[in-house]
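S.,

Sequence below, as promised.
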Amino acid sequence: MPLVKFNVPQSLPDGRVAGLRRAVHEALVATANVPEDDLFHVIHRLDAKSLVIDPAFPSLERSADTAIVEITFRMGRTDTQKQALYREIVRLAQVKSGFRPEDVMVVLTENTSLDWSFGAGVAHYALERV
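The prediction came back faster than expected:
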C-alpha cells in the first residue's frame, strides 16, 4: 500500500516515466507515512485517443506530456498531508524528470484496511485489528 497507477502518453520516454515514478514514491514516503520498501506501481502507456485530457481545465495550460497519477491508499491522511503530497510530487517530478507542474494530475482514492490483500487470499491489514 499504496497502489499507484501512472497513466502516461505513449510517446513519453522511459527515463521520464521512471523519474515520475521516483518522484511520486519519494513524495509518498516524505509526506504520507509510506514505508520506503512499499512499492506497487502500474504503468499505463496510452495513445492520444486513449488519454484524453482537457488542455486548460481549470485555468491551466497543459502540454502533450501530461500524466495522470492515481494513488489508492488506506484512509488516515490529513488534508494537510494530502496537500503537501501534491506539492512534493510536482516539485520532485520537475526535478527528476522535467515535468511541468501543470502536467502532473494526481487523484487520491482512500479505502479501509479490509480492502487490501497482498496475496494468498489474506486481508493483511485487517489482521492488525485482531
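The first strand starts at residue 3 and ends at 9.

Coffee later?
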